[in-house]
Amino acid sequence: MKNLNLNLVTTFCTVVNHNSFSRAADELVLSKSVVSKQIRQLESELQCTLIQRTTRTLSLTEHGRYLFERYSKILDDIKDTHDVIDQRNETLSGSLKLRLPIVLEHDMDLIQKISSFSKRYQSVQLDIIYGYGVGDLVSDDIDLAFHIGAIPDSSFRCRKIKSLGTKVIASTNYLQNNGTPTVPTDLKDHRCMNYRSCLTKDKWRFNSSDNSHEFVELNSVIRSDSERMLVEMAKNGLGVSCALDFLVNDYIDAGELVSLLNDYTWSTDLYIVYPSAIVTSNKVRAFIDHLTS
């Protein structure tokens, strides 16, 4: 005899439960002819008749009654097992180690999403560390890393979380003393303050009117590993800087900073990166799904 075919068993039990091929077909979303064919296939494999058919009624043979009782128990056990797995997935536990650039500590939307994950899965311990770059997630024992911009290593899996807008900013006092740039190339004549880990180094990318982009070489008078520090220096009138929206929107609204070159600025993407694996853990999948939902 062949191995047990659960599809045939399910069809058989559904027919018996409904005492009807038509109603079983409706529940299984199959045609009546397919249901009949599957019952005949099961009977052929077992080399016995399970259901006596007449034009109006169905009745089980002795073999049919015995197998229906046994098969029903098997299907119930399978359902119970799946229910346990679903429950374990919903009540995840253990630790989840995250690495993210320190600048993201000011992204209130992201913090809210991470917080709501922690509230939902209270048995999962979040271990959050700061760090730039993807690095070696496996040797660093990192489950998930947040990365701003293009992913440098295609061996990792990644999911886009969202787009992050950027703004070129300066203080009113600086602009009064040095003039206001109106096109990107004007920045060559300004004191620019640049993030040291900028992917384009001492060049800033800008969109052009023809939907292409251009890079402008900067006169970088200050470089820093801290984007937050550059924003504070811009507020103090030391020069022009570029920052992510969530770092500067409140200062712009308050009049402490001015947003420049708005027709030319561009957005970058925030990704969540995780090691390639044959099976991704339930915790990692749940976290990614939560942040991308």
Summarize the structure in words.
The chain has 293 residues and is α/β, with parallel strands linked by helices. The chain has three domains: 6-88, Arc Repressor Mutant, subunit A (Orthogonal Bundle); 94-159 and 270-292, Periplasmic binding protein-like II (D-Maltodextrin-Binding Protein, domain 2); 163-269, Periplasmic binding protein-like II (D-Maltodextrin-Binding Protein, domain 2, 3-Layer(aba) Sandwich), CATH 3.40.190. The chain has nine helices and 13 strands. Strands 3, 4, 5, 6, 7, 10, 11, 12 and 13 form a nine-stranded mixed beta sheet that branches. A two-stranded antiparallel sheet has the order 1-2. A two-stranded antiparallel ribbon has the order 8-9. The protein is elongated. The chain starts with 5 loop residues before the first helix and ends with a helix.
